[in-house]
């Protein structure tokens, strides 16, 4: 027997319609605020100011299946309990409506497994999941408090718990009626026992009122979703669908020939929210204030001024308050914090809502550099050197030809040479990195690869771009592209992860059309094809440091490990692959990166030492330089090597 009639459901349906209207109006306000941002200017064709191609993979994986939430197993499990329980509960409520048209939904196997037992477990699972998150907020988790705590979560979680409890109370009141029996509602049956003993005067009325109490709470919860932090349930999947398909940081190009609208002053980068893209503003709206970005940020974890969470929460607060045109935002965030970012993209990789804190930070950096001519002194010196001498290494004693003294290195010949070995600037001007190029020459010669170098030293311009000087980067990139076209270069080998990222990610936006191969990937290919023979030493224990610009930015994690496994025994650090910890050099911090309680490279080197491996390998010249600097604190013996050096040392020695 049911105490709920069709007319009850009609009234509830009207209340649900009102709640959904509240959700719609709340979302419309957020969309209006987000619309104050700029239309996307990426290479993808813009549609209505957004990227033209939806990222369906991210939408399903991150938005619906919450894959990044599950990286933390306990929190992932609690989230899964809530989500799975809610799906079953919603399905059960919807199926109940069918009983009004004669469908016996409570009978048979379906009634027992779904309508009774399934919904019972669903309610319990939701209660446990919500209770976990509420307890964590009440107790106080450090990452939830650092950088600001978002109000509204606790109230909504309490409301959710009360709503679930009210559902079990309504169930118990119904089961307390003498004529009602249940096969699968075990918790409600237990709760109904004391109610039966109370000898209620009107058990049917109590069950009816209990049902309405539960319904009103549930409808109220729905109506508040878009006006509280729980709006992330809608915004995070949308944000995932609009996420860039390529991992890491994806800076939109700047059209330096564009005319400002309505005679406005021409500015670069962002000083206010209105200067950022709509996707950036959606990031701020979708932000959970969970602090996961804070926990993986190398700057934040070594006591520097940058807190990616604080950047996001500040921008989110200003957006909620409608301060989209307030140029004081960039000073609120601060120059020191903006330049502390190593562009490692750990925050981008970790965020469960598909946000890019680093992307917004670099837009602020662009404004500091190109509009206000402000940057840290050491980085400013490197930038001036880049503009005047074509490389950022101030005070270097090395010349462009030092690295190849004593070697016969061919120059690239158009139509004859297959690969250009791009030497870059760090390998040329830093003596320790020069050994990487010498090792790579031995490898290419041994494998019989057709390669050549340019006669003059070059830089891709990555230090300029990541330091915020987009104009300098474009000038250098266009000169390289024009030169490559004249030489008909089609394949390029890089020995620096930053060079690879610039060539492969940003050069095509300016017209480049060649294939770029990281040297670790080429080495792995040459070994796999049998063109490069190496001697493996099982006793040689090697740990590998993943360069951020290969692992997180470009999903290159397997090839370097295969190459190292061919020469020795690979031992992993606790933080590895896409969860690797930065060396501290990126974003121009090779020439800065001061302050804080520790040096980022020292923290990473200690992790490497703790593995017990005799050698630390990497596949980026900047990582090599940073870790080598820290290795000196652990003894005079050389511990840090590039993959090319280890493979070159494992080549069979010529017979005498």
Written description of the protein model:
The chain has 656 residues and is mainly alpha-helical. The protein folds into four domains: 49-240, Fumarate Reductase Cytochrome B subunit (Up-down Bundle); 268-370, Alpha-helical ferredoxin (Fumarate Reductase Iron-sulfur Protein, Chain B, domain 2, Orthogonal Bundle), CATH 1.10.1060; 389-527, Rossmann fold (3-Layer(aba) Sandwich); 534-649, Rossmann fold (3-Layer(aba) Sandwich), CATH 3.40.50. 53% of the residues lie in helices and 5% in strands. The protein is built from 29 helices and ten strands. α1 (6-34) crosses α10 (278-286) and α10 (278-286) crosses α13 (308-320). InterPro entries: 4Fe4S_Fe-S-bd, 4Fe4S_Fe_S_CS, Cys_rich_dom, HdrC_iron-sulfur_subunit, Helical_ferredxn, NarG-like_sf. It holds the Pfam family Fer4_10.
Provide a quick synopsis of the model.
Residues 278-309 form the 4Fe-4S ferredoxin-type domain. This protein has 29 helices and ten strands. It is mostly helical and 656 residues long.
Low-confidence stretches: 43-51
Terminal residue distance: 97 Å
| Shape label | elongated
CATH topology of the largest domain: Fumarate Reductase Cytochrome B subunit
Quickly give the structural class: mainly alpha
CATH architecture of the largest domain, by name, is Up-down Bundle
Q: What is the CATH C level class of the largest domain, in words?
A: Mainly Alpha
User: How many domain regions?
Assistant: 4
Number of strands: 10
Largest beta-sheet details: 4 strands, parallel
Give the rounded overall mean pLDDT: 92
Helix content: 40-55%
Strand content: under 5%
Protein name: 4Fe-4S dicluster domain-containing protein
Pfam family, one: CCG
InterPro entries: 4Fe4S_Fe-S-bd (IPR017896), 4Fe4S_Fe_S_CS (IPR017900), Cys_rich_dom (IPR004017), HdrC_iron-sulfur_subunit (IPR051460), Helical_ferredxn (IPR009051), NarG-like_sf (IPR036197)
Keywords: 4Fe-4S, Iron, Iron-sulfur, Membrane, Metal-binding, Oxidoreductase, Transmembrane, Transmembrane helix
């Amino acid at each position: 027997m049911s105490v709920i009639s069709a007319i009850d459901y009609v009234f509830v349906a009207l209340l649900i319609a009102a709640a959904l209207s509240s959700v719609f109006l709340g979302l419309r306000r957020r969309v209006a605020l987000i619309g104050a941002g700029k239309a996307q200017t990426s290479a993808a064709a813009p549609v209505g100011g957004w990227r033209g191609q939806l990222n369906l993979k991210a939408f399903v994986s991150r938005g619906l299946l919450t894959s990044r939430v599950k990286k933390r197993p306990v929190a992932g499990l609690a989230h899964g309990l809530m989500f799975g329980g809610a799906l079953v509960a919603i399905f059960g409520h919807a199926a109940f409506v069918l009983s009004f048209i004669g469908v016996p939904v409570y009978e048979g196997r379906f009634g027992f497994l779904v309508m009774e037992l399934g919904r019972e477990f669903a309610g319990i699972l939701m209660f446990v999941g919500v209770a976990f998150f509420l307890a964590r907020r009440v107790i106080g988790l450090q990452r939830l408090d650092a950088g600001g705590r978002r109000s509204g979560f606790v109230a909504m979680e309490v409301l959710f718990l009360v709503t679930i409890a009210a559902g079990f109370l309504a169930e118990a009141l119904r089961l307390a009626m003498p004529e009602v029996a249940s096969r699968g509602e075990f918790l409600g049956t237990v709760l109904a026992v004391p109610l039966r003993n109370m000898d209620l005067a009107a058990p049917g009325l109590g069950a009816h009122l209990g049902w309405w109490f539960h319904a009103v709470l549930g409808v109220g919860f729905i109506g508040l979703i878009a006006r509280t932090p729980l709006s992330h349930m809608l915004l995070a999947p949308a944000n995932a669908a609009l996420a860039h398909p390529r991992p890491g940081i994806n800076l939109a190009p700047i059209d330096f020939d564009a005319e400002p609208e309505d005679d406005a002053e021409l500015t670069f980068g962002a000083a206010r929210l209105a200067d950022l893209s709509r996707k950036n503003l959606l990031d701020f709206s979708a932000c959970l204030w969970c602090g996961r970005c804070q926990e993986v940020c190398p700057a934040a974890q070594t006591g520097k001024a940058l807190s990616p969470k604080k950047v996001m929460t500040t921008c989110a607060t200003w957006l909620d308050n409608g301060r989209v045109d307030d140029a004081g935002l960039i000073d609120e965030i601060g120059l020191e914090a903006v330049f502390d970012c190593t562009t490692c993209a750990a925050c981008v990789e970790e965020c469960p809502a598909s946000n890019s804190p680093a992307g917004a930070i670099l837009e602020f950096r662009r404004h500091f550099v190109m509009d206000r001519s402000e940057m840290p002194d050491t980085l400013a010196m490197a930038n001036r050197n880049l503009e005047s001498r074509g490389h950022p290494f101030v005070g270097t004693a090395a010349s462009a030809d030092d690295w190849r003294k004593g070697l016969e290195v061919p120059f690239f010949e158009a139509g004859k040479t297959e690969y250009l070995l791009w030497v870059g600037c760090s390998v040329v001007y830093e003596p320790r990195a020069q050994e990487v190029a010498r090792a790579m020459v031995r490898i290419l010669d041994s494998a019989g690869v057709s390669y050549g170098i340019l006669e003059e030293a070059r830089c891709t311009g990555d230090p300029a771009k990541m330091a915020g000087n987009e104009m300098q980067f474009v000038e250098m990139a266009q000169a390289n592209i024009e030169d490559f076209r004249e030489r008909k270069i089609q394949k390029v080998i890089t020995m620096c992860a930053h060079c690879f990222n610039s060539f492969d990610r940003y050069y095509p936006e300016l017209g480049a059309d060649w294939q770029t191969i990281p040297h670790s990937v080429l080495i792995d290919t040459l070994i796999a094809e049998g063109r490069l023979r190496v001697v493996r030493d099982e006793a040689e224990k090697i740990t590998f440091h993943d360069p951020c610009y290969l692992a997180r930015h470009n999903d290159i994690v397997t090839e370097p490990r295969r190459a190292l496994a061919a020469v020795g025994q690979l031992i992993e650090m606790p933080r590895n692959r896409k969860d690797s910890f930065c060396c501290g050099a990126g974003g121009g911090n090779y020439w800065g990166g001061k302050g804080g309680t520790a040096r980022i490279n020292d923290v990473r080197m200690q992790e490497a030492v703790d593995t017990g491996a005799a050698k630390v390998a990497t596949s980026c010249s900047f990582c090599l330089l940073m870790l080598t600097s820290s290795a000196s604190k652990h003894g005079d013996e050389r511990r840090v090597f590039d993959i090319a050096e280890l493979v070159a040392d494992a080549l069979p020695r010529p017979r005498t």
